[in-house]
Amino acid sequence: MLSLTSARWSELEHAYGAASDVPELLRKLDGLPAAEGEQEPWFSLWSSLAHQGDVYSASFAAVPYVVKALASAPASADFTYFQFPAWVEICRAKKSIAVPEDLAPAYFDALSQLPSLVAAAASRPWDANFLLCALSALAASKNQPAVAEAVLELSPETANEFMEWLGSR
Fold first, then answer.
1. Model's pTM, two decimal places?
2. Is residue 2, in this structure, part of any structural domain at all?
3. Backbone angle region of 120, left / alpha / beta, with phi > 0 → left and psi within -120 to 50 → alpha
4. Per-residue pLDDT tens for 80-121?
């Protein structure tokens, strides 16, 4: 992973310019803070690194830190720790964005950890939102970004509508 003290962060970009502020946000993931409303650090991480379907070089450097935080306690992390890496991968694939060479090994290694982290979270109760984010993370980690995105759009109601549509074909 790119060190949080590396000068490279100031060379990386996010939605608002240089990503020199991202390491401090990533440090705040210790203790697995929830992503509720506009609470930090998640509000700033989402708005700067996954802004309206766009991802940036700093997004790829941040994903390993999100997955590292998730790995510290997958049974108690909230859905966002699965949703964020999945969404970054979905957006990367949709827009054919290349991961910078120096960031690619850690980024793709982090994605490869998601299936085991989903399994490690299996003992906890899952609401519909957690289920969708966990399934999306699985699909994204297995190079299935379209499925990952579709899963994020499913609610129990939408799934029922889909099944009715499928049955009528």
1. 0.95
2. no
3. alpha
4. 999 999 999 999 999 999 999 999 999 999 999 999 999 999
C-alpha–C-alpha distance, residues 64 and 67, integer Å: 5
Total domains, the chain = 1
Within a domain: 147: yes
- For CA atoms 90, 93, 97, 100, give the dihedral sign: positive
- Residue 67 and residue 81: Cα distance in Å, rounded? 7
CA proximity to 2, closest of 50, 58, 49, 48? 58
Per the structure, the complete domain to which residue 49 belongs is given by 7-168
**Which residue is associated with the tokens 């964005």?**
97
On whether residue 26 sits in a domain, the answer given is yes
Number of other residues whose CB lies within 10 A of the CB of residue 131: 15
The span from the CA of 59 to the CA of 140, in Å, is 15
Flag whether 52 is in a domain.
Answer: yes
